[in-house]
Amino acid sequence: MLNQKRAPDAMIRPSFMPGFGFGKKAPGAGPKGLKLEHRIGVQAPPDVIWELIADVRSWPDWNPLYSRAEGVLRIGAPLELTLRLPDLPERHIEPVVLEWVPNEQLHWRSSVAGGFGAAIRYIEIEQVADSACIFSNGELFQGWLGPTSAKRVQRPLKKGFAAMGEALKHRAETLWRGRG
Questions:
Q1: Terminal CA-to-CA distance of the chain, rounded, Å?
Q2: Contact 137, 123 (CB under 8 A)
């Protein structure tokens, strides 16, 4: 008999809902905090999806989560965004770009709970075939009050991430079909 390692149950449990990851916590697996996420399949290659993400100023044209977007994708650069979460008033945020890799990911950080927490917002593209990707967008809340702050806006965030994913899927697939 082979000596097999078994992953702890906490690491392999399914997420709260299909397409969403809420409160995923796995001991010893990555950064601590509360993770809220939406994933969706997109029938377009990564460069088509990235074209939409990289053009920050055009986000309001297709992205229901941001009614205003300014800034450049450069490590350490600030973004100026107006966040439009369902059922909540719009809110101006000024996150800082942490990391970006063309055709793969964009991460930024903002302060929450008066500086007693942090939110790492991420947009990620995972290629699964020549013209198919998984688009993930979500946020990791960390710090003393970060996870508590996230729980208060969990439902609007869930709706907002889903709306953004659906809008990106529609826009990217339309662009890709138009080029075919």
A1: 53
A2: yes
Looking at 16-25, 112-121, 134-143, which range is the least confident one? 16-25
Residue found by looking up tokens 């969403």 in the block: 20
pTM, two decimal places: 0.80
CA–CA separation, 70 and 177 (whole Å): 28
Lowest mean pLDDT among 4-8, 136-140, 153-157, 175-179: 4-8
CA angle 129, 36, 12 (to 5 degrees): 70
Per the model's pLDDT, the better-predicted residue between 6 and 52 turns out to be 52
Do 30 and 158 meet the contact criterion of CB atoms below 8 Å apart?
Answer: no
CB 158 within 8 A of CB 22: yes
In the Cβ-directed half-sphere of 76, how many Cα atoms lie within 13 Å? 0
Angle between helices 154-179 and 46-54 (to 10 degrees): 120
Residue 42: closest CA among 174, 179, 146: 174
Residues whose CB is less than 8 angstroms from the CB of residue 9 and which lie 6 or more positions away in sequence, other chains included = none
Alpha carbon distances (Å) from 40 to 18, 43, 66: 10, 10, 19
